[in-house]
Amino acid sequence: MLSDPDGNKVSAEFEVWWTDAEGAEQRSTYTTLARASGSTFTRQLPTGIPSGTVVSWRVRANDGTANSPWSSEGEGGTACEFEYDTVHPDKAVISSADYPDNREWTDGVGVYGSFTLDSPSEDVVMYQYEFLGGALRTVRPEVPGGAVTVRYLPLMETVDHISAQAFDRAGNGSSRSDHTFRVRSGRTPVAHWKLGDTAGATGAAAESGPDARAGSGVTFGGAAPAGTGLTATARLDGGDEAFLTPDTPAVDTGGTFAFGAWVRPERTDRDMAVASQGSGTGAALTLRTGDDGPVWSFTVAGQEVSGGAPETGEWAHVLGLFDAETGLAQLYVNGLETGTPAAAAPAETADAFRIGQGAGASPWQGDIGDVRAYDRVVVPAEVTELARHNPRSLGHWSLETAPGGTSPEQGGGVPLKLGAGAVIHRGPDNCIPDFDPDCPDVPYALVGDGHLQLDGETGYAATDAALLDTADSFTIGVVVRLADSEPTGPMTVLSQAGDHTDVFKVRYEPSISAWQLVMPVKDEAGAAEIVVSQISMADGGEGLGHQLAVVYDDATDRIKLYLDGWTNAEATAPFPNGVHSSGPLQVGRAHVGDGWGEYLHGDVDEVQAFGGALTDTGIRQLGLGT
Question: What's the rounded Cα separation, in Å, for the pair 219 and 236?
């Protein structure tokens, strides 16, 4: 960039020199056309300069009257120089003792591995690499031509690979190198006690690791969290003898470790230990009270991460993880990371692992089951699986027949009884009206061979008793088609009542052209309501209708309304405490005042109910007639 103090136009004179392959100096000058003062000037080098040549250059300005000094002149001045390099470096050699490229499956998910990248070229100053599905990353050796080592944590059982490219100082890149390796599933826990031992047992048999002896405050044969595969748990009475221990360490607290369990506290008004190993520099998983209410806590070497909201009598899965690679302690509650990871520096401890006891906390009072301790990272997908409640089907009504006014449940469970104004519509049986003159000219059913048709005045269907435990996680889905294109008022497709009000209802609100999920925070008349919605135009009796689904997840304290398999921010909301209901499941009506109302005018099919929260994938399998 050249300037003239008087603002006159200036031209640039470049001088460039180098030594050619025969050792002779080559020198070239070039003068540009004049341009405005402050302009940038460039010079393209001549072709034929050999790679590896050091090129020197300088420049001066001319305002048409005089030349400025050369850029290399004056105090501290020097010519600029660079090395002209067009030779690409050799490709990197990728090696790993932890995850070799030998077609063998290697241990495994949750275990860090080292990968060395090393190009034979001595002028390599940078490597770029990426693992399968990961971001492109850059790493530089300490000295040119040096090797680098990168660390990687496999998150799933798979055939994985790393690709890398070496770059020299001139930015020349090598060809790509690839290293394929096979990752096994994560190692089983180093210690695992289901605590499903028979009543009267004096200790817990281990699935892995040593057995654990039990204090006299431990009783086996307690209830287990539904949908987890556990058949029983242990109850600890909160006294001094409320503990189990293998009388030996379960994990190396000087390295990476994790431990967790299913727990159900009988109280939340005092600090209580779930499990621990050591004190001070050790680790403890606890329920801790605080000014803002009880929380779950994981403490490592005095550094705490906390979160979640323990509830008396509610099952929760809690797991603490310390990753020695990152130096961070993390806490998972019901499969989700909670709290802010805390930096910690624990030391190895020879103290025994203890269930139900820990320094600075009272013994556990409540139920504990499926205690697991690991010597590796438990990756998020594994934590989610450990905390999973598999939903159980409570009923599936295809609504294709109703002998005697009763539509059967597919598995022989509780039926739906049809009220006045409700009939089963049957589509054409095994024929196509347009091609078969003997085929009855009737509309097809929404799904399968039939659906429920409601008149909007008195029509409904209902079970004889409460179906969903609305105080716990539940899911219910339905296919519905509105008969009117402009409904005159709200119409409810599903509801279930408590003693004083509907604990939930799914209705169409024509004033905003939306399906709504309405859930009161208490079973009281006039209680505040949480309402989420999904925009949808009324069907007017046309089309295939819509698949609606409701999910209440007690573990995450959220409600969701799905429309045709999808939800969004406006269709989900926090819901901290499920509300008990005692009334039958209603299809096609809701409570209004002291009676019934909001009768649905339209068609209903494929009512499916579950105890537990279905996943997004599970929701998209509803309403298919299978």
Answer: 7
